């Protein structure tokens, strides 16, 4: 009888030891799984961080290359028909400079400049040819009436819409100039030009204090 009890106790202890061993094994396995997941997560984060840093490095390289390119363009200028259009002080004719071409009431408008040089090369070059032809005619006006102050010359389509210009404005083709005479009476100059100018004359005096000239067909109108 006592032997049987001892045998049963021994079996129970063996079972408890086996269950305890299995429990420890399960705990160890779960712990290892948790650790493995943690390591995988950390490794994933490291990988993502490394990829993010690589993107930052690429972005920095792109910005540096862009800055170098812009610097070279600025240094070399935008040479078209022998004129550096990137320099506002470059002369486009005897009396007029690049700054006159892109002028606005607030001074030179580089948005107009950027818009012109964003056009297809053929279209841009046509407009530049028009600008130079107009500049030659405006030199003649200067020679006849004295110094002139340009208030508007080239306009891109967006600028033209913003200022309320005509939908087919000659300004968008570089063919038109708004200006004020500085040495002669504006109304007298306007009347003289109205008589002999072969293109369009917009009468801005005396109400608006400017004269519009363009190379379009012969037209006359008031502002």
The structural domain count equals: 2
CATH class value of the largest domain: Alpha Beta
Widest sheet: strand ordering:
5-6-8-7-9
User: Tally of extended strands?
Assistant: 9
Oligomerization: single chain
Order of secondary-structure elements: HEEHEEHHEHEHEEE
Which structural class do the helices and strands define? alpha+beta
Mean pLDDT: 86
Structure explained in plain terms:
With 223 residues, this protein is α+β, with helices and mostly antiparallel strands. The protein has two domains: 1-76; 78-222, Muramoyl-pentapeptide Carboxypeptidase, domain 2 (2-Layer Sandwich). It has helices spanning 2-76, 98-101, 110-117, 121-145, 157-162, 186-196; strands at 79-80, 83-84, 103-104, 107-108, 148-152, 176-181, 200-203, 211-214, 219-222. The longest helix has 75 residues, at 2-76. Mean pLDDT is 86; it is low at 67-76.
What does the secondary structure layout of this molecule look like, with pairings?
Blueprint: H1 2-76, E1 79-80, E2 83-84, H2 98-101, E3 103-104, E4 107-108, H3 110-117, H4 121-145, E5 148-152, H5 157-162, E6 176-181, H6 186-196, E7 200-203, E8 211-214, E9 219-222
Parallel strand pairs: 7-9
Antiparallel strand pairs: 1-2, 3-4, 5-6, 6-8, 7-8
């Amino acid at each position: 009888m006592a032997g049987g009890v001892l045998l049963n106790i021994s079996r129970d202890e063996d079972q408890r030891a086996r269950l305890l061993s299995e429990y420890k094994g399960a705990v160890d396995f779960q712990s290892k799984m948790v650790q493995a997941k943690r390591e995988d997560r950390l490794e994933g984060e490291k990988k993502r961080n490394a990829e993010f840093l690589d993107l930052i490095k690429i972005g920095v390289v792109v910005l540096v290359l862009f800055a170098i390119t812009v610097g070279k363009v600025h240094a070399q200028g935008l040479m078209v028909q022998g004129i550096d259009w990137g320099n506002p002080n470059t002369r486009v004719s005897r009396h007029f400079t690049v700054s006159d071409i892109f002028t606005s009431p607030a001074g030179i408008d580089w948005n107009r400049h950027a818009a012109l040089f964003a056009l297809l090369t053929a279209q841009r070059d046509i407009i530049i040819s028009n600008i130079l032809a107009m500049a030659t005619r405006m030199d003649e006006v200067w020679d006849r009436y004295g110094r002139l102050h340009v208030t508007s010359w080239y306009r891109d389509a967006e600028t033209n819409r913003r200022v309320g210009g005509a939908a087919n404005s000659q300004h968008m083709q570089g063919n038109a100039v708004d200006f004020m005479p500085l040495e002669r009476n504006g109304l007298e100059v306007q009347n003289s030009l109205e008589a002999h100018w072969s293109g369009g004359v917009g009468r801005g005096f005396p109400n608006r204090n400017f004269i519009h000239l363009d190379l379009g067909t012969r037209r006359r109108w008031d502002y």
